[in-house]
Amino acid sequence: xxxRLRVCALYPELMSIYADRxxxxxxxxxxxxxxxxxxxxxVGHGDTLxxxxxxxxxMGGGQDRxxxxxxxxxxxxxxxxLHAAAARGAAILAVCxxxxxxxxxxxxxxxxxxxxxxxxxxxVRAAGGTGTRLVGNVAIEVxxxxxxxxxxxxxFENHGGRTHLGPGAAPLxxxxxxxxxxxxxxWEGVLAGSTIGTYLHGPLLPKNAWFADWLxxxxxxxxxxxxxxxxxxxxxxxxxxxxxxxxxx
Length: 249
Fold this sequence. Notes:
Elements: E1 4-10, H1 21-33, E2 37-43, E3 56-59, H2 64-87, E4 91-95, H3 97-100, E5 105-108, E6 111-114, E7 121-125, E8 134-142, E9 151-159, E10 161-165, E11 173-177, E12 187-188, E13 190-192, E14 195-198, H4 204-207, H5 209-220, H6 232-244
Parallel strand pairs: 1-2, 1-3, 3-4, 4-14, 5-7
Antiparallel strand pairs: 5-6, 7-10, 8-9, 8-11, 11-12, 13-14
């Protein structure tokens, strides 16, 4: 088994407004409990990004103003590095605003905010006020490489953007409860190799510990399954998130 997981947190000072630091904490704990080292590096605005120095890249969500600042820096200074990291098989998890920046662009009225073009998608801000936001508990069915059948991801969504996948993009999962990418497409998130974008937070990984393990295994390119842990508390958290979304446990 690999001796450490090297994680890069992208723009943690600007893109982490939904308690999504909990995703990093859970990854660290599950690595520690298995004797896997955990190395966390923060890469922010203006910093150089080394595509070969990390196994997993993570970015959360932010306010529109901060997201625009991040978008300009990512497109101008980190685009090539992120493409190189994805090409060599590094895992990338982007949540909410970070998910929107994986695509070609995000339209804010007449303004077009650039993305890094890792996946074929674009996002359009819904017209109107707060009532147009897609908010609530959500559950999706996903099928991921290496897993024996479909699984459920449960979380919480709160987004004004409608993310439209292009013909070259595959969704992360099928909406069971909640809104998903657009509110009417029936799909949520995007999955391209080991690059994942999703609107699910709350935060996501503490509610879906099995998915955290899948990320670790994928990022480290492990052939054998991770040793099992006593997941009674984690299973209870997942069951609670499923119930909140209206799914049976």
